[in-house]
């Protein structure tokens, strides 16, 4: 079974990188927990920069028990998911990132906030800007249209709708690529912070 999981894994955690992260985690967080400001510093995110909102959403998604801290077990569990999780697990994680208030729904303002952050990150990193040629509001409308499977257009989107709609629309999956590949974001930001 472990071997099957290995072959399905697109990106594997580099053992040395994980050891380095643990060392840095222990050095920066001798208490054994990571607070939001430390999380941002850990990944080299400017507290007011383009990636700040996205980092805050990632922090909430990593914080499984909701105590506003991340212990190393939560950190490793989240990294395991982002590096090894299947599409549905990553969509569940992505939904948690979008659900900023944790009420089990994603509404238009939550979606807009994260899409805006993704656009700003893509512009700053000069990564694939083809999706950012439409406005944030147009992207939000298109995503909501795809994931609002009951077509009520009013009510916030539930997790099952989000998963079903995202799986059915390749553009939505591509648009969510930063969330679908948080491992890439984690590694890129770790590399950037290591150079400082």
Radius of gyration: 17 Å
Q: Give a quick account of the main beta sheet: strands, pairing sense, barrel closure.
A: 2 strands, antiparallel
The number of E-state strands comes to: 4
Low-pLDDT ranges: 1-11
Strands of the widest sheet, in order across it, are 1-2
Written as H for each helix and E for each strand, in order along the chain, the element string is: HHEHHEHHEHHEHHHH
The helix content is 55-70%
What's the CATH class of the largest domain, please?
Mainly Alpha
CATH superfamily of the largest domain: EF-hand
Assign an overall shape.
globular
Task: Break the fold down into its secondary structure elements and pairings.
Elements: H1 2-8, H2 15-28, E1 33-34, H3 36-42, H4 52-62, E2 70-71, H5 72-84, H6 87-98, E3 105-106, H7 108-125, H8 136-147, E4 157-158, H9 159-168, H10 170-175, H11 177-180, H12 182-194
Antiparallel strand pairs: 1-2, 3-4
Helix pairs in contact: 4-6, 4-7, 6-9, 7-8
């Amino acid at each position: 079974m472990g071997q099957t999981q290995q072959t399905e894994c697109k990106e594997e955690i580099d053992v040395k990188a994980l050891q380095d992260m643990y060392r840095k985690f222990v050095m920066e967080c001798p208490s054994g927990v990571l607070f939001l400001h430390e999380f941002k510093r850990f990944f080299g995110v400017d507290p007011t920069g383009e990636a700040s909102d996205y980092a805050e959403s990632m922090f909430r998604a990593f914080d499984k028990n909701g105590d506003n801290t991340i212990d190393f077990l939560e950190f490793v569990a989240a990294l395991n998911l982002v590096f090894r999780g299947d599409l549905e697990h990553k969509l569940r994680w992505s939904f948690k990132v979008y659900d900023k208030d944790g009420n089990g729904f994603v509404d238009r303002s939550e979606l807009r906030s994260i899409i805006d952050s993704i656009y700003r990150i893509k512009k700053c990193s000069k990564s694939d800007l083809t999706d950012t040629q439409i406005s944030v509001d147009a992207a939000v409308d298109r995503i909501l249209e795809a994931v609002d499977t009951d077509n009520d257009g009013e009510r916030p989107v539930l997790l099952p709708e989000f998963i079903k709609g995202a799986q059915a629309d390749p553009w939505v999956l591509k648009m969510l690529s930063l969330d679908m590949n948080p491992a890439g974001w984690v590694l890129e930001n770790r590399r950037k912070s290591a150079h400082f």
